[in-house]
Design goal:
The chain is mostly beta strands and 465 residues long. It has three domains: 117 residues, CalX-beta domain (Immunoglobulin-like), CATH 2.60.40; 147 residues, no CATH class; 125 residues, no CATH class. Helix content is 2%, strand content 38%. It has a five-stranded mixed sheet with strand order 5-7-3-1-9, with no helix packed on it. Strands 2-10-8-4-6 form a five-stranded mixed sheet, with no helix packed on it. The longest helix has 9 residues.
Length: 465
């Protein structure tokens, strides 16, 4: 169980000793490396990221040599920023811990999939050093990775790792991670056959339904806002979506084909630590169907006397379409449903209080993409070791479609030896039938890692048919 706060006395105490002294150990070298050694894409462009092991103290120049195979720069592909003499000049801004460049396929060009580009980090400005993953092969097709080591980038700024601002979606077969700000969205509209809408549990959201269907008739007088408090002993599981991730357990009832049956909900879009936003930041929402192809969202701030509308169209290549109420627009969150296997990050979950489960905000949760057919299993090393686990072990492995089959079970944050649990690993079967074994290496200072940036490794056990 995680606590997203520390007593002020402890913070003050730690602050005294944060000042540099002659006895402080030297910081480890800051290094620059690709996120993985292989990457692929089958669209029109792809982002490639170089990450530092910690934020740069000053703007840091990085040179990357590119060597194309069966393609020519400027003919079949280009990059942003542009390359000069097959070299990219990149800069990590001061205070940032990564830099991204884009590879773009030239419009109308037909490729057969054998084409590739080899990228190599050739120099990094002092005091940053070149790290381990200095080379990356980018294939002009979707790849099926043999496995790699990767560090998830949950930190967006200077926030504590236990409250990492990013959710991170990882695609094992493509060696690709997608960090997304947890605060960037509020509602997820299911893109499949059912008409279901989820609230943002990764942002600690909570909501209460009213027996009213006229949004303009709802004001602050209709609700005691303190009833929206959730987490840290406050609230009940009924204030949030079901932790299982099953569509039938969304807080917002299934959107009815009969408009009058779709009621108003009051939404606290950001919470989780028994906090409720001020009344002028609380939203009222109502959702109706738009034929068979989507939804119409009605929304307004709690005391507004008029509301706005936003149409959301289903796209079956995704699990959900997402909406930001602050922006009044759809936003990109999850990758296409076939392009991620699990999500790491903070979320409302549950913990036991006596004989009752209550809502509680957890860091470092891992949820598999069960809506797209991903399954997983936990394997204890008393059954098989990570290194010894091979294809023949799959037949005796019991896979689960439970979203939280990994959950928080892979690490300890209190009440024992803090760090990654080394007595277990996980086996993940993606929607294409590829089977990977995966283990976590570190996630906090006590096991040699960094909170908010867990390290893991995985290997292909069996390629899908």
């Amino acid at each position: 169980m995680n606590k997203l706060f520390k007593p002020l006395l402890i913070i003050a105490f730690l602050g005294i000793f944060n000042a540099c002294t002659d006895d402080d150990p030297a910081l480890p070298d800051n290094t620059a490396a690709f996120e993985s050694t292989a990457q692929g894409f089958d669209g029109e462009s792809v982002d490639v990221k170089i990450v530092l092991s910690r934020a740069a103290e000053t703007a840091t120049a990085i040179s990357v040599l590119l060597t194309p195979t069966l393609v020519t720069y400027g003919t079949q592909f280009t990059t942003t920023p542009a390359a000069t003499n097959n070299t990219l000049a990149l800069t990590v801004p001061a205070g940032a811990s990564s830099v991204t460049f884009k590879v773009l396929k030239t419009a109308g060009v037909l490729l057969n999939g054998d084409e590739s580009i080899q990228f190599k980090i050739t120099s990094v400005a002092s005091p940053v050093l070149v790290g381990t993953n200095t080379d990356l092969k980018l294939s002009f097709k979707a790849i099926i990775s043999d496995g790699t080591s990767i560090q998830l980038n949950g930190i967006a700024g200077t926030e504590a790792g236990s409250s990492a601002a990013n959710s991170v979606f990882l695609d094992l077969s493509a060696n690709t991670q997608t960090p997304v700000l947890r605060d960037s969205w509020d509602l997820g509209f299911y893109a499949g056959t059912d008409f279901r809408v989820t609230i943002n549990t990764s942002n600690g959201a909570s909501a209460i339904g009213l027996d009213k269907s006229d949004l303009n008739a709802v004001t602050a007088a209709d609700i005691d806002l303190t009833k929206l408090a959730i987490g840290q002993g406050q609230g009940t599981l009924a204030l949030s979506d079901g932790y299982s991730g099953k569509l039938a357990e969304t807080l917002i009832k299934e959107i009815s084909a009969t408009d009058a049956d779709n009621k108003v909900y009051i939404l606290n879009r950001k919470g989780g630590s028994a906090t409720v936003l001020p009344a002028d930041q609380i939203y009222k929402i109502r959702i109706i169907r738009k034929g068979t192809t989507g939804y119409t969202l009605q929304y307004a701030l709690l005391n507004d006397t008029t509301f706005k509308t936003l149409d959301v169209t289903k796209d079956p290549t995704y699990n959900f379409q997402f909406v930001s109420l602050v922006k009044g627009a759809t936003v990109a969150v999850q990758p296409a449903k076939a392009r991620w296997d699990f999500e790491w990050g903070y979320s409302m979950y549950y913990t036991a209080s006596g004989t009752t489960n209550i809502p509680y905000g957890f860091s470092d949760l891992v949820f598999i993409n069960q809506l797209a057919g991903v399954t997983a299993a936990e394997v204890l090393t008393t059954t098989a070791t990570y290194d010894a686990y091979v294809e023949s072990n799959i037949a005796t492995t019991t896979f689960s479609a439970d979203r939280d089959v990994i959950g928080s079970k892979w690490r300890v944050t209190s009440g024992g030896t803090v760090g990654v649990k080394t007595d277990r690993f996980y086996v993940i079967k993606d929607a294409a039938g590829n089977v990977y074994k995966l283990r976590f290496i570190s996630f906090t200072s006590t096991d040699g890692g960094e909170r908010g940036k867990p390290k893991l490794e995985y290997k292909l056990v069996k390629k899908g048919a």
